Amino acid sequence: MKRALCWVRRDLRLHDHYALSEALKSADEVYIAFVFDNLILDKLHSKIDPRVTMIVDSLKEMEKTLNLHSSSLIIAYGNPTEEIPKIMKEHNIDALFFNRDYEPYAKTRDEKVQKTMLDLGLSVFTFKDHVFYEKNEILNGSQEIYKVFTPYKNKWLETFRSQEEHIPLYNCLLKKLAPFKNSKSILSHNWMQVIGFQETPAVLVAGSSAALQRLKDFEEYIDNYKEARDIPALEQTSNLSSYIRLGNLSIRDMIRLSVEKDNSGYQTWLSEIIWRDFYHVILDAYPLVEKKCFRPEYDKIKWLGSSKDFERWCEGNTGYPLVDAAMRCLNLTGMMHNRLRMVVASFLTKTLLIDWRLGEKYFAEKLLDYDLAANNGGWQWSASTGVDAQPYFRIFNPYNQSEKFDPKGIFIRQWCPELKGFSDKSIHSPHDTEVDEQFIAGCFIGKDYPHPIVGYKQQRERALSMYKAVK
Ligand SMILES: Cc1cc2nc3c(=O)[nH]c(=O)nc-3n(C[C@H](O)[C@H](O)[C@H](O)COP(=O)(O)OP(=O)(O)OC[C@H]3O[C@@H](n4cnc5c(N)ncnc54)[C@H](O)[C@@H]3O)c2cc1C
Q1: Interatomic CA distance for residues 54 and 5, integer angstroms
Q2: Which residues are catalytic?
Q3: Residues framing ligand 1 (Cβ under 6 A)
Q4: Is the pLDDT of residue 164 over 70?
């Protein structure tokens, strides 16, 4: 084949990239294109979005490397189902290569592009790159997709161990890149302006070098991951989710680290990566989960919560310190620790009695690492409506969670500074303190920090009846 196009989407890197590696092997000249998809961008509420900055910065890093090989990225803005065929025609390209995506919108888009290619008599090759195992690679004894995580994980590990020494590494020898100079390159042209977004200060340094460095830095903590991963104040998880979301590193990069040693830290970390595969398989096989409960009976729930309480949850003004600290952290940084995601999701659904879909949508707007499969999976798990979800009667007690996972209130003090003066014991429920203690702490409950907007115990009973009513 003479010319191939590698269309990059959520795989913004030039190493260990399956589609790119195959394109480079198969064609004499390879072009690489990225399309700013107006259908996705138009849905983003704020035009100041650090995720868009991260995409642009990742592309800039790629472009710098391509320039060293006298090549360049092709950048376009519009509907990819029109833009990709246009690029193919303009550069007289014979074949299209891309890595598969499992989100419903992306699947429809990719099918359309594939059909157009076939109509034009051009070839299309797609690859599994974004996850380690996809679709029907991990099946149960009845040849069906697993709907419970632990047996899925066991089968995943069994399959993996039988081929462990072959974690594929898709080398990308950049010698066959098409010699080409883009007059509207990502480095020279103001694409942010074209797509109608404003640059934001970087929350994380984007790109593969930063992602691989972070992976390396995480080696220092991974031995203790099993114990440390639940304590937000320690910040000892990998923080790689925003990078894997954009594909600045490959899932194989992560898995190669996870098997370097065989201790509980490494094993637990691999297990989290397997959750990611699991949720992608579920979203791919059951796209309806994007809008509906995986367990249909829960779509009949009459959610009793109020829009006012939802607002207070979003702002981090519920009067529950750990919940508020977590939400304020999300609002300011776009990040939230996994334990806190579980705490605030359980709190929204089972204490404030608000539909998980509202929380999921809010996370989708704010999270730097937003990923439909993992976010939907996490929300439906917390709300007990999903595959292998926790039972509906398991309701996190926000006070116990706070005492257990932020025992000294370090995280709370960081994000709710008005509570700084309370003792390590009182900081989890400051409204229970006497006025004298509030005076000494320099914070009056009801004035400087809210009273709890709802009572946990009463709401727990209401939640149980709300769920029971549809069982
Ligand atoms: C309500 C809720 C919403 C969530 N939304 C998202 C989301 O939008 N995007 C996202 O990437 N993760 C989401 N998660 C999963 C998890 O919270 C994040 O992946 C994790 O906090 C990222 O931090 P880390 O990179 O330090 O993870 P680590 O603890 O270092 O884990 C390594 C990697 O494994 C994957 N991972 C870890 N835990 C999970 C999990 N429970 N489910 C799926 N993958 C996992 C991530 O890719 C992560 O980077 C959500 C969880 C919940 C409970």
Answers
A1: 23
A2: 272, 275, 303, 338, 356, 379
A3: 229, 237-241, 244-245, 272-273, 275-276, 279, 338, 341-342, 345, 363, 367, 369-371, 374-375, 377-379, 382
A4: no
pLDDT digits (tens, 9 = 90+) for 47-63: 999 999 999 999 999 99
For ligand 1, pick from 276, 365, 388 the residue to mutate: most ligand atoms within 8 Å of CB.
Answer: 276
Averaged over 297-303, what is the pLDDT? 97
Centroid of ligand 1 to alpha carbon of 279 (angstroms): 11
Q: Identify which of 203, 338, 341 to mutate to test ligand 1's pocket (most ligand atoms within 8 A of the CB).
A: 338
- Contact between 29 and 121 (Cβ < 8 Å): no
CA 233 / ligand 1 centre spacing (Å): 17
pLDDT band at 425 (very low <50, low <70, confident <90, very high): very high
Q: What is the pTM of this model?
A: 0.97
Segments making up each domain of the chain, as ranges: 3-129, 131-169+208-285, 296-468
Q: Which CATH number fits domain 131-169+208-285: 1.10.3900.10, 3.30.465.10, 1.25.40.80, 3.90.76.10?
A: 1.25.40.80
Q: Quote the pLDDT of residue 182.
A: 87
Mean pLDDT in residue range 439-453: 98
Q: Long-range CB contacts (< 8 A, 24+ apart) of 69-72?
A: 69/174, 69/175, 69/177, 70/177, 70/179, 70/180, 70/181, 71/32, 71/174, 71/177, 71/178, 71/179, 71/180, 72/180, 72/181, 72/182, 72/185
Architecture of domain 3-129: 3-Layer(aba) Sandwich (3.40)
